[in-house]
Amino acid sequence: MSNPRIYQNQSLTIGSTLTLTDDAFGHTVRVLRLKDGDTLTIFNGELFNNSLGEYQAELTNVSKKQAQVVIKSFAERYVESPLNIHLGQGISRGDRMDFTLQKSVELGVNTITPLFTERCGVKLTGERLQKKIDQWQKIVIGACEQSGRCTVPTVMPAIYLDEWLAQESLALKLNLHPKAQYSIMNLPENNQTNSKQRVRLLIGPEGGLNDGEIKKANEASFVDVLLGPRVLRTETAALTAITALQCRFGDIK
């Protein structure tokens, strides 16, 4: 693999030399077997001269335990959607949650809040929960590296659904429901996004949200929308809804 994209959460300056993080070193040197003089692309999600983009860098001082890069140049790159999506995702079992987060980032999601719901079936607290959040954030970073995004969405601390519903927001609020009157593609004008193009999308876990949770979402101004006549898995529902939103309001044309 030539010129891989690597995220580095540190300040980047043209002409400077920096030491790669352990994760970046493991990927570029141990996995890809890059050597001194090989090139790679670095990004940190910060603006350079009021522009978002990425840096070309060259590997140097590669050893068995660490490596450095010299930042050579900056190139503007902006692939962010005009639509800002905050995904409230009911926590699912196994690798379904990992898959949902990875692909939602590829599709342009900006913020992800994992949600505890009645049917989520996942018991995580304390240190185990924090490790899982850290793991999900790494998956998000990997998705940005792969997809060409220069900003990294945030995985928020996991909270209960009631807490997320109570958060104040002027965004368009949507919840999937198989008996809804409207689809994302035919929402009436008064339910379209505001001038800031922001959406809060609620997706239940395996088994979906129960009737009480749907009622609470409606009371919190969430609009029920449907995705067609078929029953979708939680990960399929999330990605289908995000794609529909990007087609309707974003940058998938």
Tell me about this structure.
The protein is α/β, with parallel strands linked by helices and 253 residues long. Helices cover 29% and strands 26% of the residues. The strands form two sheets. Strands 7, 8, 9, 10, 11, 12, 13 and 14 form an eight-stranded parallel sheet that branches. The model has no long low-confidence stretch (mean pLDDT 92).
Quick rundown:
This protein has helices spanning 22-31, 96-106, 126-147, 161-166, 211-219, 234-249; strands at residues 5-7, 17-19, 39-43, 47-48, 51-60, 68-76, 84-90, 111-116, 154-155, 159-160, 172-176, 182-183, 198-203, 223-226. It is an alpha/beta fold.
- Which class best fits the helix and strand makeup? alpha/beta
CATH architecture designation of the largest domain = 3-Layer(aba) Sandwich
* CATH class categorisation of the largest domain: Alpha Beta
Q: Can you count the helices? A: 6
The main β sheet shows up as: 8 strands, parallel
Q: Termini distance?
A: 30 Å
Look at the structure and give the mean pLDDT: 92
Could you give the order of the helices and strands? EEHEEEEEHEHEEHEEEHEH
- Nearest-angstrom radius of gyration? 20 Å
Quote the beta fraction: 25-35%
Overall body shape: elongated
Weakly predicted, low-confidence segments: none
The strand count comes to: 14
Which helices and strands, and how do they pair?
Layout: E1 5-7, E2 17-19, H1 22-31, E3 39-43, E4 47-48, E5 51-60, E6 68-76, E7 84-90, H2 96-106, E8 111-116, H3 126-147, E9 154-155, E10 159-160, H4 161-166, E11 172-176, E12 182-183, E13 198-203, H5 211-219, E14 223-226, H6 234-249
Parallel strand pairs: 1-3, 7-8, 7-13, 8-9, 8-10, 11-13, 11-14, 12-14
Antiparallel strand pairs: 2-6, 3-5, 4-5, 5-6
